[in-house]
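Researcher: I'm preparing a figure for a lab meeting and need a structural model of a single chain. I don't have an experimental structure, so a prediction will have to do for now. The sequence is pasted below. Please return the structure as tokens so I can convert it later.
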Amino acid sequence: MFVNAKPLDKKLHRNLKYAPVKGYQFAAQLSFSILSHSEMIPASKHYPIVFPISTENKQLALPHALLSIEEKKNAFVAADGTWVSGYIPKHIQRYPFILGQIPKEKQMAVMIDEAAPQFKSEKGTSLFDADGEPGALLKKAVTFLENYKKEIDLTQLMVLELEKYEMLMPMNVKIQKGGTGKTLKGFRTVDYKKLVKLDDKTLAQWVRNGIMSLVHAHLISLQNIKDLAKMQGTGPGKK
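Model: Understood. Here is the structure written out token by token.
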């Protein structure tokens, strides 16, 4: 989705204008979206939520909303660009702005996708005012990004807690289409049998710090795999 993310520069981008676009064509090839803990409940009503196989990049261990069972295709973006579910993940809402780490530096910076359709028009709202300071639109975007970053950081700690107790187990889903089938894999789900065997002290802590709410939303959301498969003309079967 972020094709050409570059640090926002008040000199380089002083005359850049932002114009809203109709539809979500920019996310039409997005097959998943990361989620923060605050999104788990609303997202669970529309998408299957899973956890990718652990990698060195801990960011990838965050909860993911599955938007498709096919690569580079978003089942929730209609042909006219309309988003066809009742909740849009914040990862997509923030586009074309994102917080990123500047190479060779430790600090985070506001970045924009210079290739975004929102920046293609000469008409729109300037990101900076006449004095070169952030305008109202940019300030609002930065506040959104900062709050979202805090949510993501907390969510990461929650997932690491699940990792600590080895709660996440690989899961495969067999997708049937006509006389052929394929297996959807590469993700993990919470092992309910392990969950109920946790000691009372840990369970109580997880209830208080929100981890249990995250887990419940995740487990309930798995029912949406069947609906997602139907949207894309297939039928699932757990394996």
